[in-house]
Each structure stands twice: as structure tokens, then as C-alpha cells.
Amino acid sequence: MTRYIDQHKNRFGVEPICRTLEIAPSTYYAARSRPPSARQQRDEELKPKVERVHAGNYGVYGAEKVWRQLRREGVEVGRDRTARLMAELGLAGITRNAHKRTTVPAATASRPEDLVGRNFSAPAPNRLWVADLTYVSTWSGFCYVAFVVDAFSRRIVGWRVSTSLRAELALDALEMAIWARQGDTERLVHHSDRGVQYLAIRYGERLEEAGVAALSRLQRRFLRQRPRRDRERPLQGRADPPAGAVAHR
Fold first, then answer.
1. Do 43 and 133 share a structural domain?
2. Domain for residue 99, yes or no?
3. Which of 106, 155, 170, 249 would bridge with 199, disulfide CB 3.0–4.6 Å?
4. For residue 37, is it within any domain?
């Protein structure tokens, strides 16, 4: 409160601000004349030490490492207090965790119609599948996971792991889901984001073959233009279950 009044008293005056805030001006003057508390005095003692440790490590230390270094030096300070002081000083560490982007929008492809209306519930199995991609940090690096979830049971019916965001990653997860559910997809709606993996022609082709409602206008136009013999020809190896599908039988 006193900080707010200090920031605006030159423009509005102390008494008008106190009248608006419904506090007595004497309260403000008493707070201003009150000596610093023991906590404030300790904070002022610790701030130079926090700055020294942070600067001495090339400005890359976060609150955790600054706190541990201060403890090694015999400074009695808590981890949360160290983080608060660093925030007040405008100090921050450097993180090694690079942000992984899993959704790359397809600039030229039209988006599929939203057949779900943000209602991710289903009255029965195989009525609504939700597909997505994510990444997982491991000791050997990042890996990407594509999965298909049945909205009725919240069960993962198809999944695939890869070290790259290739189009086959999402397609393999879809193949596993279709195989695991034994082709019961006549009244199924497929929902996903607008990433290039889900707007790929091959992905839309497989959805059409399975009778799933989730094709974009570009995918439909391509499939209509294909020769009839190509539309009726099954994909090679379609009869074989995808790798890892036995776990979901």
C-alpha cells in the first residue's frame, strides 16, 4: 500500500489517495516512519550475496543452484526466499529444456470440420476417437509419441513412438487403433488438431477406407480425383497387425 502511494503521491497527493483507498493518512505516515523490520533488513543483507553467486556463475544459475551454493558457503537462507530475492532483483537462470513443437500447421491444407463441438464425450465405444502428438524427455533425448484415445473409456487404443515427427508416426497409431478395435468404425468420428501429420493425404485416405468421419476438403478432393482402381486397392501389408498391437488385444 505504501509503495502504491509513493508511486502516485506526486500526481494526486497523499490525502486524496488515502481518501479513495479509505485509509487514514496517519497510517501511511506511520508506515513510512517505521524502521525496517528484521525480515527486510535480512533481505537487504542477502541480496548482494545472491547477486554475487549469480554473476559468478555466468548468470546461468537458477534459484535452486544459487540456494545450494549459498548453503555451501554457510549462508542461512531458504530456497523459497532465494527465489523471491532473485525475482525482486530481476535474476533468472538458463534452462536446458528446449521447447519441442509437435503441432506444425499445414498452411495450404483446409482444416477438417469440427464434428465434436468441444464435447469430448461419447455414448459408446468407437464413437469418438481423439488423436494427438506429444514428446517425452528420456535419458537418450526426446522421443515423440502419437496416440489415439477412445473418448468413451479414455483408453489409448493406438499408439506409436518415434524419434522424428514423420507422417507415418500418426498413421501407425491410427492403424493400431483400427486393428485393435477389429474395424468397428462405421459410426466413428475422428478428432485431431490441424497438424500436417493429420492433414496428410495418406492419413485421410486411411480414414476414408475405414469409414471414419474426419476428412478435410483437400483430402476429399484428392481422393475423389484418384482412379477407382487405386481407391479399391488395399494397402500392402494391411492384413498384418501393426507393431505393438498385441499389447492392446
1. no
2. no
3. 106
4. yes
Count of domains in the chain? 2
Distance, CA of 188 to chain centre: 27
Does any domain span residue 117? no
- Decide the pairing of beta strands 155-162 and 141-150: antiparallel
Q: What is the pLDDT along the chain (249 residues), one digit of tens a residue?
A: 788 888 888 888 989 999 998 889 898 888 888 888 899 999 999 999 999 999 999 888 999 999 999 999 999 999 999 999 999 999 988 776 555 555 555 555 455 565 666 677 777 888 888 888 888 877 777 788 888 888 888 888 888 888 877 768 888 888 888 888 776 667 778 777 766 666 776 777 777 777 765 544 444 444 444 444 444 444 333 333 343 333 333
Full residue range of the structural domain in which residue 10 is found: 2-89
What 238-246 contacts at long range (C-beta under 8 Å, 24+ apart), as own/partner pairs, is: 241/176, 241/179, 242/160, 242/172, 242/175, 242/176, 242/179, 243/172, 244/159, 244/160, 244/176, 245/176, 245/179, 245/180
CATH number at residue 202: 3.30.420
Structural domain ending residue among the three candidates 89, 115, 137: 89
My answer on whether 226 and 139 are in the same domain is: yes
Which has the closest alpha carbon to 128: 179, 184, 187? 187
Residues in the chain: 249
Taking the CA atoms of residue 95, residue 97, residue 99 and residue 100 in that order, the dihedral angle to the nearest 10 degrees is: 170
Same domain? For 75 and 156 the reply is no
